[in-house]
Amino acid sequence: MGSKVVKTETPVDGVQPQPSTALAIDGLTKTSKMKVKWSQLGLIFFLLLSVIMTSCFIWQYQLPKLEQDGNLDGNSRSVRMCPRFPEPTTLEHPIPSLKEALEKVDFVLRNRINPISLPALSAIVIYNDTVLWTGNFGKRNGSDPNSPPPNEYTIYRIASLSKLFPTLMLYRLWEDGKVGSLDDPLEKYVDIFTIKNPLGKSKDSELKYVTDGLIFLDSGEVQIRSSSVTLRRMASQLSGLPRRLRATNLLWKGKTQTAVSLLQDDVLVADPGTKCHYSNLAFSLLAHVLAEKVVGVNYQRWIAENILGRLGMEDTGFDINPGIQSQMAVGVYSSGATAPLYDLGWYRPSGQMYSTAADMAKLAMVLLGAYQRKLLEPDTLKIMLTPLFRCDKDYFANRTGTPWEVNEQLGYEVLRKDGDLDGYSATFSLVPRLKLGLVVLMAGTRPQNQDVVSKAYSYIIPAMERAFREARRVLNSPPNPAPYVGFYTYGNITFYEIKAGPDGVLIMQQFGPQIEDLIPERYRTIKLNYLVDRVFRVVFEKEYPCVLRVNTASVSLEAQDGQLFNFYVFDKNGLSPGFDAPGLNTYNVVRIARRPTFS
Ligand SMILES: *[C@@H]1O[C@H](CO)[C@@H](O)[C@H](O)[C@H]1NC(C)=O
Ligand SMILES: *[C@@H]1O[C@H](CO)[C@@H](O)[C@H](O)[C@H]1NC(C)=O
Ligand SMILES: *[C@@H]1O[C@H](CO)[C@@H](O)[C@H](O)[C@H]1NC(C)=O
Ligand SMILES: *[C@@H]1O[C@H](CO)[C@@H](O)[C@H](O)[C@H]1NC(C)=O
C-alpha cells in the first residue's frame, strides 16, 4: 500500500494510488427523481406595496463628471445594472428564474453520474437558513441493480472536508479564551516542538521573539527557537509544514508525541506565512495539540460533544461501524472496484469523517450565520470567512483562508473545501456575500472533465442576483412621518420634496428646473427606509443603471444606494430642520418653507 505521489499542489489524497480517471461516460445513466424544495417560510409582507416605485436618485446631479467613456452609442444592453452585489433579502418563492437555474444544476449533476466511476451523488443548495434544492442521483450501491437512489441522509465519507472541524475547534477555543491568540506559535502549546526552518531568516522576527521570551541566547548567537508555525497558519495551509510526516502515509497510527519527535529533524518546506502548501500534517497536529494540550480531551470526543452534538449533526462522525456502513453510499475507484473503508489513524482529523448532505447543510447555515443553533460569534464568522493569503500560480486555489481554498467567480468570493479519498469525493462551498452554500457528496471519483461546483454556481449566482434585485423590499415607515415631510434644498442648487406614501414610508423626489427637463421622474424618486430614531437609509427598489448618463454628464447612482440620512433634532414646531448624508460627504441639506418658484 503506497502513498499517492502528487506532483503539483492539489488537494487530492488517498491511500491507494489511483490512475487518473478514464473519460467519463456521460448520459448513460439512470437517474433518480429530483426534488425541488421551495422554502415554505411565511412570505407575508407587512406593507402594502401596491404602488411600486421605480426609483433612482440623482443626488449629485449638479456635480456632473465629464464622461470619458467612448461607449455612447446608447445601446441599453451595454449599460451595467446595479446593485452590482445586491443584498440578500427575503425571497418570495417560487421564482421562475431561480427554478430554471436549479433545473440546470440538476441536469449537470445528474449527467455526471457514471455507473463505473461515480455511481452515487447527493447535492444540496442552501440559501441562508433554507434549503433551496436537493439532488440525489445514481444508486447507493452501484453494483446492486436493485439499489435505491441516495437521499439527503445517505452517508458519504467527506475526506478533507474533515479539516473544517479542527478549524472550528480552534476558533471556538479562541472565543472561549482557551487559546490566547490565533497567531500563537505552536511552541506555546508543545514546548518540545522544533523543526528546521532554513528559509526563514528575518532579523526582525528574531528580535520579536526575544521579547516574547521564546528564544534563547547561546554564545552570543541569536538562535530562533520559534518557527512561526502559528495555529492560524496551520489551519490555512500556510505553516510551511510538509504534507505528511516523514515516511508515513495516511494510515499511520502513531501518537502525537511521536509525531513531534519525527518533526525534530525535519524541515519546513517554506518559511511560515509565505507560501501556500497543502498539509494534512498541519491539520492533524493542530487538532491533536488542541485536544491534548488545551482541553485535555480526546479530539473526536471534543468534536462530537461541542460541534456535532451542539448543531444536531446526527449522521456525522469518525467511526465507520457496521450500522453506519449500512447507511453509506458505496465508494468506488475509477475502475469501479469498491474502495476499502480505510481508517486513517493519527491523520483522522484531516480526512476520516463521514457525513450527509443534510448535516453538511446545517453546517453551511451555521457558517452563514443563519442557523438557529449558534457555534461562533458573528465577528468570529467574519474572520473565518475572510481569505488570508494570495497563493502562487502553481497552487490549486488563488487564495487560501482558514481553512478554505478561495477563488473568485462572477465577482464573488467562493470559499471551498474539497476532499478526495479512496472511493469518495466531496466539496463544501460557500458564497458568503450571497448567503449561498453548495455541498456535493460523491461516492466515486470526482469528474475530471468539468468542475461541477463552479458549473453549478455559474447558474445559481446570476439567478440569485436577479432574484435579490427583483425582490420586493419590506420598508419601514417612521413612527410619525410629519417631522420629515416638506421641502429641502442643498445649497439652493438642488431641491427635494419628502412625502409620506400610503404606507407611511417616506418618498423623496428631486426637483428643479434643469432636473425636470433632463431626467425622467422614475430616476428622481427614492424611498427612505426608517432604521432608528431620525436615521433613514436610501433604497432603490428596482434594478437601476449603475451610472446614469445624461447628455455628457454621468451620475453614479451606485454610490447613493444604501446611504444613510441623518435628520436633525426636531424644532419647536416638531419639524426636522434638515439632514446630513455623511456617506456622500454632504451636510446641511436644509428645510425650506415652501416649494420655490423658478423663473
Ligand atoms: C437569514 O436567516 C436568519 C435566521 O433565520 C434571519 O434572521 C435573517 O433575516 C435571514 N436573512 C435573509 C436575508 O433572509
Ligand atoms: C452492493 O451490492 C453487491 C451486489 O448485490 C453486494 O455484493 C455488496 O455486498 C453490496 N455492498 C454493500 C456495501 O452493501
Ligand atoms: C485565479 O484567478 C485568475 C484570474 O482571476 C483566474 O484566471 C484563474 O482561473 C484563477 N485560478 C483558479 C484556480 O481559480
Ligand atoms: C438660498 O436662498 C435663500 C433665499 O433666496 C437665501 O436666504 C439663502 O441664503 C440661500 N442659501 C444659500 C446657501 O445660498
UniProtKB/TrEMBL annotation:
Matches recorded under InterPro entries: Beta-lactam-related, Beta-lactam/transpept-like, Beta-lactamase-like_AB/R
Xref: Gene3D superfamilies: DD-peptidase/beta-lactamase superfamily
Protein origin, superkingdom: Eukaryota
Keywords from the named record: Membrane, Transmembrane, Transmembrane helix
Domain Beta-lactamase-related span(s) in chain numbering: 118-448
Protein family (similarity comment): Belongs to the beta-lactamase family.
This protein's name: Putative beta-lactamase-like 1
